[in-house]
Write a structure and sequence with these properties.
By secondary structure, this protein is α/β, with parallel strands linked by helices. It has eight helices and eight strands, in the order αβααββααβββαβαβα. Strands 4-5-6-7-8 form a five-stranded mixed beta sheet, with helices on both faces. Strands 1-3-2 form a three-stranded antiparallel beta sheet. Helix 2 packs across helix 3 and helix 6 crosses helix 7. The chain is elongated and about 55 Å long.
Length: about 200
């Protein structure tokens, strides 16, 4: 393929996908203020040499193909699979929190005895937040992760002077109630996907 120089906006779309792996058409439209669906489709169609699009229900989900990775110097190869919806949900909450500049995905938090990998870490109003996305994992796995946060509580308070807000994004009201019960004693917020869309 002959490499052409893309517009600044089109380069920014590729760079955003480099950072966030998988984004829906609606997420890209919201972030780049692309307007109506027909305009968003036109912009993304013009990038078809650089993007792969998969359908998940009513959503079109985009990620970098080989040409897109080469254009933005990205070594990470994305493949569609069961994890895609998890990533899309994580990116939805990133948009909900107004795209924090210090957002970091997959961050290990640990002390000498316990460790946990947060789906994302970011700050709001100068305070740290740890994000966990509950999509397909069992509630038993979620409770185990919450217990590890509780074990880390003293070292986190020592490090930050407070326990960062544990933010959960889940799929149903029933799961929200289970997570709220499990998080009792921590500083937390639980959203369902309906809350933020």
């Amino acid at each position: 393929m002959k490499v052409t120089q893309l517009s600044q906006r089109n380069e920014q779309i590729l760079l955003l996908l480099k950072k966030f792996d998988f984004l829906t058409r609606d997420q890209l439209a919201a972030y780049f203020k692309l307007g109506k669906i027909c305009n968003t489709n036109r912009v993304l169609r013009n990038l078809s040499d650089y993007l792969t699009c998969v359908r998940d229900g009513y959503q079109s989900i985009y990620y970098l193909n080989k040409n897109g990775r080469e254009y933005v110097d990205c070594e990470k190869v994305r493949k569609k699979g069961g994890h895609v919806q998890h990533v899309v949900m994580r990116n939805e909450i990133w948009l909900h929190f107004k795209c924090p500049k210090d957002w970091r995905n997959e961050v290990k938090i640990s002390d000498e005895k316990t460790s946990v990998v947060a789906d994302a870490v970011f700050t709001r109003n100068g305070f740290y937040h740890f994000l966990e996305v509950d999509n397909l994992q069992s509630m038993k796995e979620n409770r185990a992760k919450i217990n590890r946060y509780k074990e880390l509580s003293d070292s986190l308070v020592k490090q930050f002077g407070y326990f960062p807000t544990l933010v959960w994004l889940t799929t149903t009201e029933h799961r929200r109630k289970q997570l709220e019960s499990a998080c009792n004693g921590l500083n937390f917020k639980v959203f369902t996907i309906k809350d933020i869309q």
